[in-house]
């Protein structure tokens, strides 16, 4: 049990807390599920890019899936070996491509022919052969929130099957491109297996057809997306997930790459915030806390559900919204939840805040971002200090 009150007293609120032992369990569960084949778990750094989190995963043997050169740098700094780092993303700058090639990471995931041309030109300039993989958009509805759904043609991600094949043939004939991998990622917070199996089958067919023309794909990247329980969702068992993918790979000797973010850290993180006061507007009850949408954006942006709890309080529950001090009506953590009466300084825990929490925080309303704390074997450690007002203004100048 994590002593949330002691942590709030020691580090103040709002605060992020991560249970590293839980992260270890998540990693091992997934790695074990894939044990029947060659696999590389490449943690999606975007979910929680704190250096300590990434280095903890590095220690477990994880690779990294990065979407900017900044994330690649973090991964290298955190000790992820370069041959376990992949660089994805729909728009990479020339300088990012150049640096990734200089760093000699495992591969760059490409999402368009235009991008492939840039990578080829930059690799030629550097006298290198770029290891690439192509993101295929299998046109599958992942049945998740439209903002985090990526595998339909109407989304900006990847290329269609025909374009992918053309790109592989081109890359295979290029001196500066080595097409070693294939990639798909149909969405995030997936709770149904069937769309994943379908997507995997479509992409595996393409790999077999490439094999028939002597283009050997070594890495089969199934993206991330495994959902977690926020409320009462039925989620996909890692074992069944792996088996579904295996079932599509007959005749292929590939290393499976999996890029989980949320699964690895989502339920290992907690957001702590204290009650400032309560108010009632024409019968509508609000609990106003010191954390806000700038600290944890998911409820405001996706109307996402996060379980909340007022620590150590019970009694006459009534419906209330938990809201922050930011001047937006969309600034809330929970809506119409049954909550006990609260008073100044009561502690509220927002659950499932380990993924896409701190990383999506901003300084809106000139609010310093929260501190982050790791719990390792029952001991707490600050892994990112709370920002100060001075941090927020240090890059600004008053020109007049
Ligand atoms: N690989 C690719 C290519 C991705 O685009 C993503 C997530 C992942 C892996 C990791 O997905 P995960 O395993 O975490 O589902 N901010 C949103 C989620 C955006 C996900 C973007 N891509 C949220 O808070 O729900």
UniProtKB/TrEMBL annotation:
Orn/DAP/Arg decarboxylase 2 C-terminal domain residues: 16-354
Catalytic activity entry: meso-2,6-diaminopimelate + H(+) = L-lysine + CO2
InterPro entries reported for this sequence: Ala_racemase/Decarboxylase_C (IPR009006), DAP_deCOOHase_LysA (IPR002986), De-COase2_C (IPR022643), De-COase2_CS (IPR022657), De-COase2_N (IPR022644), De-COase2_pyr-phos_BS (IPR022653), Orn/DAP/Arg_de-COase (IPR000183), PLP-binding_barrel (IPR029066)
UniProt-annotated binding residues for pyridoxal 5'-phosphate: 225, 259-262, 356
Span of domain Orn/DAP/Arg decarboxylase 2 N-terminal: 22-265
Residue list for modification N6-(pyridoxal phosphate)lysine: 46
Alphabetic keyword roster: Amino-acid biosynthesis, Decarboxylase, Lyase, Lysine biosynthesis, Pyridoxal phosphate
Residues reported in the UniProt entry to bind substrate: 262, 298, 302, 328, 356
Quaternary structure and interacting proteins, as annotated: Homodimer.
Biological function: Specifically catalyzes the decarboxylation of meso-diaminopimelate (meso-DAP) to L-lysine.
Protein name stated in the entry: Diaminopimelate decarboxylase
Species this protein is from: Hydrogenimonas cancrithermarum
């Amino acid at each position: 049990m994590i002593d949330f009150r002691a942590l709030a007293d020691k580090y103040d609120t709002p605060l992020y807390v991560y249970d590293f032992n839980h992260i270890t369990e998540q990693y091992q569960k997934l790695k074990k599920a894939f044990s029947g084949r060659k696999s590389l778990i490449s943690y999606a750094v975007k979910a929680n890019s704190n250096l300590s989190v990434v280095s903890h995963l590095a220690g477990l043997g994880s690779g990294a899936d990065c979407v900017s050169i900044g994330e690649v740098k973090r991964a290298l700094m955190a000790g992820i070996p370069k041959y376990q780092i992949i660089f994805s993303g729909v728009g990479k700058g020339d300088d990012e491509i150049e640096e990734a090639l200089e760093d000699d990471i495992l591969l760059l995931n490409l999402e368009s022919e235009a991008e492939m041309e840039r990578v080829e030109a930059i690799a030629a300039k550097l006298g290198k052969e770029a290891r690439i993989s192509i993101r295929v958009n299998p046109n599958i509805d992942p049945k998740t929130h439209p903002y985090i759904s990526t595998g339909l043609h109407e989304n900006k991600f990847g290329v269609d099957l025909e374009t992918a094949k053309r790109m592989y043939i081109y890359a295979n004939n290029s001196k500066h491109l080595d097409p070693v991998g294939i990639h798909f990622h149909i969405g995030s917070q997936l709770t149904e297996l069937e769309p994943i199996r379908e997507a995997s089958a479509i992409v595996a067919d393409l790999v077999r057809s490439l094999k028939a023309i002597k283009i050997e794909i070594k890495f089969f990247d199934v993206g991330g997306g495994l959902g977690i329980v926020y409320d009462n969702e039925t989620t996909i068992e890692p074992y069944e997930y792996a088996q579904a993918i295996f079932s599509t790979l007959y005749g292929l000797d590939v290393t499976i790459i999996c890029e989980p973010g949320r699964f690895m850290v989502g339920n290992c993180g907690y957001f702590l915030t204290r009650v400032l006061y309560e108010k009632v507007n024409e019968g509508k009850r609000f609990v106003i806390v010191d954390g806000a949408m700038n600290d944890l954006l998911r409820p405001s942006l996706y109307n996402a559900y996060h379980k909340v709890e007022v620590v150590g309080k019970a009694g006459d529950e009534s419906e209330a919204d938990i809201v922050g001090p930011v001047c937006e009506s969309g600034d809330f953590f929970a809506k119409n939840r049954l909550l006990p009466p609260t008073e100044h300084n009561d502690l509220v825990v927002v659950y499932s805040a380990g993924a896409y929490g701190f990383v999506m925080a901003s300084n809106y309303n000139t609010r310093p971002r929260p501190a982050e704390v790791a719990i390792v074997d029952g001991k707490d450690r600050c892994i990112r200090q709370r920002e100060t007002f001075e941090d927020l203004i240090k890059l600004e100048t008053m020109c007049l």
